[in-house]
Amino acid sequence: MTRILFPLFAAAALSGCGSFADRLGLGEDRPDPDVSAATEAAAPAPSVEASATPVLTSGANSAESLDTTTAEEREAATKPPTAAGASLGETVVSLGSATEPGLWIKTPLVQNEMPGRVTNPANGKSAAVTLIPIEGPATAGSRMSLPALRLIGASLTDLTTVEVSAAG
């Protein structure tokens, strides 16, 4: 009896394994990997014109090349404010869409779009930005533009705590 039950038990236990199940005829209908590879190799590559995603040139793979702000915009954003704005609180920021231009922070700390300022408490650098509301509790994180992160000396890959205030 053990000689009959063990092979059945083993077949049932291994039926979830794709290649073993395929060999026993127990698996789902899966495309033959050799046929799929041949089909992919024969398929033409999509043209650049047909692509909806912007294609970056070889030089567009650095933060410098993706930062589309002008020197004048960066200088204006880093000028000290004439009056202190109302503090809205602290938030943890990460890099937002690197291809979205401008100096902005998308944060749940505001209900309406408005001018504001972000300050990196680690080094004291600040920048004038547009505060853009997003849904979520005030304790939720925020996303900041690549140029704004660069101006305040924040890491593009780490999470950074910043102070957010309304424009003064």
UniProtKB/TrEMBL annotation:
Keywords: Signal. Residues 56-67 have a biased composition (Polar residues). Residues 1-21 form the signal peptide. Residues 35-55 have a biased composition (Low complexity). Residues 25-90 are annotated as: Disordered. This is D-galactarate dehydratase / Altronate hydrolase, C terminus. It comes from Sulfitobacter delicatus. The lineage of its organism: Bacteria, Pseudomonadati, Pseudomonadota, Alphaproteobacteria, Rhodobacterales.
